């Protein structure tokens, strides 16, 4: 790709400013505040667009900083470039109310779609992160960001596995990890559902057990009451049986009904007393008579008591019958209550056993849980294999990147450093004929050379289409010799270079070395 023309219609401080660029080195010179950074940002905005921030972030974002000084509602520009043997024109309106982008092929007038990816295809799949970490370099961001290390890992997995950088195997890995998380979440949800069901069943079991325990206590109470009542009935039965066996005495048989003492009993006792007085001598006869009289009085008193028990009135007989009927009612009720409690206890026991079986089934792994686990293991295995593959492919990338960067650093340092070594985080070490030198041990000028070599090497690996190299005051820490070597390498290996500077050093060095360049004065 080669940029041919910039037209800053209304961008930052510029209004209808046209800048023509050529192949090779374009030296864009201007004092501070002359607009070099504005042009640099304009190129990036034309290629990738400018998004406006939200909230407080919008106050100091790129959109606000480079909003036109005059007539901010008309915020636009045009960029013409060549790619694949054809010339194209892209026009953008950055205004928030009428934002749009149009891409046209100049030769045949074909209108292409920026939204559908036609511009990115022309840029060789270059995106803004790759752009900022490779071909676009300024004094402030010479070191590559962490996003570039991840970009390289992804590229390594894609390209060295399939030969096609468009196959996003790292994205596939992320999808597998996402799928694994989904399955793990499903497993957790299933376990949560089982736990909720378990808790509900355990609560029901607790209630049923309490009911069973209560019914058992009630049944014991009823059985004890029935047993007590049965004992009482047995005692009464035995009493009635004993009364029937003993029957009545001789005197009871001959005594008239309703008589408490028979006349013969009075006569017999009187004769006995008289006989005792007559037969016995004095004073014993009187003493015996007195004793017999007292005994007879005691007998009469006992008979009077027995008579009261035996002689009953009609109301008393009726009351006794009623009382016996009332005693029969609780016994029948207790028997019914026992049968009812026994039946309910049986039902509760069956329900309790069924709930216990359901709880036992919850402890077993069901088919759905087994399926989730099998899928999770399959996804885990696929992700592990893909990570192993990715690691191996990054080894190939590291080898190629080190070779390309080493060739560049060897040339721009005049052979002082022959080899450059990077790790997965793009931390750099240098190899000399004698030892390994960490980047922290070399001068700032050498560090800048290393960053330039690394960016150019990464750009060659990642970018199918060669992009213009844009350098914004990057030679501030270079001495004249380092600058000369860097400019020679750029002239020899890059189709187009845009060199922004506020110094005269770059122009003087190129003049003295006979390096051709095209100058634009701001």
UniProtKB/TrEMBL annotation:
GO terms for biological process: double-strand break repair. It comes from the Bacteria. Residues 6-227 form the Rad50/SbcC-type AAA domain. Keywords: Coiled coil, Membrane, Transmembrane, Transmembrane helix. The keyword Lyase does not apply. Residues 166-204, 331-382 form a coiled coil. It holds the Pfam family AAA_23. One of its GO terms (molecular function) is ATP hydrolysis activity. The chain crosses the membrane at residues 261-280, 286-302. The keyword rRNA processing does not apply. This is Rad50/SbcC-type AAA domain-containing protein. It comes from Dorea longicatena.
């Amino acid at each position: 790709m080669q940029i041919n023309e910039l037209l800053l219609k209304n961008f930052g401080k510029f209004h209808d400013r046209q800048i023509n660029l050529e192949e090779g080195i374009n030296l864009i010179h201007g004092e501070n505040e002359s607009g070099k950074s504005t042009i640099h940002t304009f190129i990036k905005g034309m290629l990738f667009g400018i998004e406006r921030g939200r909230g407080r972030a919008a106050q100091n974002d790129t959109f606000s900083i480079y909003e036109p000084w005059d007539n901010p509602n008309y915020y636009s520009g045009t960029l013409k470039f060549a790619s694949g043997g054809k010339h194209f024109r892209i026009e953008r309106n950055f205004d928030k109310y009428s934002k749009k982008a149009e891409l046209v092929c100049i030769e045949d007038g074909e209108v292409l779609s920026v939204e559908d990816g036609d511009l990115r295809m022309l840029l060789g799949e270059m995106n803004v992160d790759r752009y900022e970490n490779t071909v676009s370099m300024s004094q402030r961001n010479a070191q590559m960001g962490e996003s570039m290390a991840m970009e390289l890992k992804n590229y390594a997995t894609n390209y060295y596995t399939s030969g096609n950088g468009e196959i996003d195997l790292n994205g596939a890995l992320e999808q597998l990890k996402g799928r694994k998380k989904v399955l793990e979440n499903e497993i957790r949800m299933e376990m949560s559902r089982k736990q909720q069901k378990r808790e509900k069943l355990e609560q029901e079991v607790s209630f049923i057990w309490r009911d069973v325990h209560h019914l058992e206590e009630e049944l014991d109470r009823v059985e004890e009451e029935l047993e007590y009542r049965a004992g009482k009935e047995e005692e009464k039965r035995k009493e009635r049986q004993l009364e029937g066996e003993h029957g009545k005495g001789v005197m009871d048989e001959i005594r008239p009904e309703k008589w408490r003492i028979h006349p013969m009993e009075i006569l017999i006792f009187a004769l006995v007393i008289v006989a005792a007085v007559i037969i016995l001598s004095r004073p014993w006869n009187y003493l015996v008579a007195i004793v017999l009289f007292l005994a007879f009085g005691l007998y009469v008193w006992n008979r009077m008591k027995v008579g009261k028990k035996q002689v009953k009135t009609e109301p008393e007989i009726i009351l006794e019958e009623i009382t016996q009927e009332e005693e029969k009612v609780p016994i029948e009720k207790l028997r019914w209550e026992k049968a009812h409690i026994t039946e309910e206890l049986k039902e509760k026991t069956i329900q309790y056993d069924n709930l216990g079986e359901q709880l036992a089934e919850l402890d077993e792994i069901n088919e759905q849980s087994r399926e989730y686990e099998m899928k999770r293991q399959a996804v885990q295995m696929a992700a592990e294999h893909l990570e192993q593959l990715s690691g191996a492919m990054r080894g190939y990338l590291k080898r190629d990147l080190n070779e390309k960067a080493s060739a560049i650093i060897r040339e721009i340092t005049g052979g002082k450093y022959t080899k450059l070594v990077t790790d997965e985080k793009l931390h750099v070490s240098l190899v000399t004929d004698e030892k390994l030198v960490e980047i922290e041990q070399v001068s700032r000028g050498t560090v800048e050379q290393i960053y330039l070599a690394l960016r150019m090497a990464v750009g060659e690996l990642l970018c199918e289409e060669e992009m213009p190299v844009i350098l914004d005051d990057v030679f501030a820490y270079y001495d004249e010799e380092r600058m000369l070597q860097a400019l020679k390498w750029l002239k020899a290996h890059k189709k187009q270079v845009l060199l922004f500077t506020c110094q005269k050093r770059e122009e003087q060095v190129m003049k003295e070395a006979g390096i051709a360049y095209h100058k634009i004065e701001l």
